[in-house]
Amino acid sequence: MPSAYLLISHGSRDPRPEIAMQQLARLVSEQAQTNLAEIAAIGGVASVARCETLVGTAYLELSPEPLHEQIIKFARNIAPLQKLRLKIVPLFLLPGVHVMEDIPTEVGLASQVLGQDILIELQPYLGCHPGLERLLAKQFASATATARILLAHGSRRPGSRQPVEVMAKNLGAVTAYWSVPPSLETQVQELIIAGYKQIAILPYFLFAGGITDAIAQTTEKLQLQFPEVNLQLAEPLGVSAELAELIWDLIK
Fold first, then answer.
1. Which 3-state string (H, E, C) describes 129-159?
2. Short-list 215, 199, 76, 209, CA closest to 147
3. In a 3-state reduction of DSSP, which class is residue 181?
4. Topology given in CATH for the domain delimited by 131-233
5. Strand, coil or helix: 243
6. How far apart are the C-alpha atoms of 29 and 3, rounded to whole Å?
7. DSSP structural state of residue 94
8. Which residues pair with 203 in a beta bridge?
9. Cα(117)–Cα(78) distance, rounded to whole angstroms?
């Protein structure tokens, strides 16, 4: 049974995340092709079919079609006359409502329509991969700050913030959240009161977009408010071969 992979992100009115998703899908496809070639070499197979068309993208919100319809369309375009194993990969960083409730519901709706010929497998969400901590550590390492803030979106779902808290502790950082307390402003002020003069702020977001722009504006205001402090704002995770490798590791 052939396999296909559908990367799911939140969706945005800003065009940058969608462009980044397309770039990331290409990198995941290349990672898949490399992996299949290695398997073929180990098994003594002369060649392996190319798989670029088997990695697609879809969006939970702000798309003309609901997610389950996007899943159905992708599956039928890939395998109109044959069976297919379709792996759904949530590119979300926190186990909030979207990951734990919304996406499983949409996948269930798609499964009912597609029937038994399309085997849909919902993969773990990206944020649970331990390798993400390594990527964040590299970004923090480039900063010269003596204090660190890991700034995530946040969720009101019970327990959803625990993975970020654990990761922040391992990275020697405090946590802040964009949508729930404690806010970036609060944590910056607390660190300043504690005597820190150099503070690195790392947005725990996949791609640049409207929220990261707003984070930059907030950081600029804080810098004006506290000119004696050096605030160092890092970039979000962004598209990279390392991130594509982590995604493939979730689904291979």
1. CCHHHHHHHHHHHCCCCCEEEEEECCCCCCC
2. 199
3. coil
4. Rossmann fold (3.40.50)
5. helix
6. 12
7. S
8. 151
9. 12
pTM: 0.91
Q: What pLDDT is stored for residue 252 in this prediction?
A: 79
The pLDDT score that the predictor gives to residue 82 is 74
10-residue averages of pLDDT along the chain (252 residues) = 92 96 96 72 51 80 96 89 88 97 98 92 96 93 92 94 96 97 98 98 97 98 98 96 95 84
pLDDT of residue 242: 96
Token digits of residue 75: 């599956």
Determine the Cα angle at 88 with ends 243 and 135, to 5°: 15
Which tokens hold the place of 120? 């849909």
d(CA 235, CA 182): 21
Q: Tell me if the domain spanning 3-127+239-251 has CATH number 3.30.70.60.
A: no
pLDDT of 47: 45
**CB contact at 8 A, 206 and 175:** no
Helix (H), strand (E) at residue 118: strand 118-122
What's the number of CA atoms in the CB half-sphere (13 Å) around residue 149?
30
Alpha-carbon gap, residue 54 to 99, rounded angstroms: 23
Predicted pLDDT at 81: 60
- How many residues are listed for the chain in this entry? 252
Taking the domains of the chain in order of start, what are their residue ranges? 3-127+239-251, 131-233
